Structure formats: C-alpha cells, structure tokens
Amino acid sequence: MNATTVGKPVLTWFAGSLLLCSCAFTQRVMPVTMSNANVVGVLNTIDQIEVDAGELGKEKAASPKVKTFAARLAHEHTASLQGRHRLAEKIDMDPQKPQLAVALEHMHGESTTLLQKKSGRDFDEAYIKGQIMMHEQMIKLLEDTEATMDQPDLRQHLRYSRPDLLSHLSAARAVARQF
Fold it and tell me: pLDDT higher for 105 or 19?
C-alpha cells in the first residue's frame, strides 16, 4: 500500500487529532476555555464518533481482528456515552456542544466519506491508523483537561476513563502490527 492509498483518511484523522491537541493546549494555557458542560459535550461527541466509526468498521473491515476491534469500540463507547449521561443527570448538568465538537463532527463526516470508498486491506489500515491517532489525542485531552475540572465527579470520571482509552490504544496498535 502506498501513501496515497491511506493518505486522505489519515490526513483527516490527523487534522482532527491536531484540533484535539490544540484544544488540550488551550486548556492548559487557559483553563476557563471550556466549561464542565462543554467538556462533557466534547466527550459525548467523541464517543458518538467512535460508536459510528466502530459500526463502519464492523461493516467494512476485511480482517476479523479489525472487525472485532471495531465491535469492541462501538460497544464500549456506547457504554461510555450512557455512563456520562447518568453522570450529567447526577450533577444536574446539561452538556453543551462547543465549536470544537462541531468541528470534530465535520471532520468525522469527511473521514467517513473517504473510508467508505475504501475496501479490504486499504480500509483496515486506514481505519486502524485513524483509531491509533484519535485515541492518542483523546488520552492527551483527558490528561490535560482533568486537572482543570472543578466538579469532583466529572474529574473522577475523566480519571477513570483513561484506562479504557489506553486499552483501546493498545488493542489498535496490536491490530496494526498485523499489517
């Protein structure tokens, strides 16, 4: 596989990762940039993107390992969304979708369009590379955001979410080694 085969989806995932990274940097420099409700809104958006990507992976992947990984992501990010919904109710918060979440949705749409045009090993490689980049940036976002949260339950939720994302990242890297 050459660089142009994977290029566009990976570039789109990379752009999304850079956007996440810049948000994390902003959070460190200006902790008031995102409210608790905005953070929950971004996390909900990311989880929904991962659910959608997981469903696409289950449908289009050629490799059984990629299909299994995609199914795991869809299931676990659905559970994460449900858990965060219960948390928002518990702390009486209405999640709000900041511009970052809207931008992520837009990039996800572009990435999905590009991935849908791929098949077989080309799809599998592009999908897994995108998942590795996305999970690396999600972990960084959680780490950088956790300390800025003034709501203890939300801060704890962020702390407890990190091991799941690390597990996803490790699994994606393991699948990538098959290519």
Answer: 105
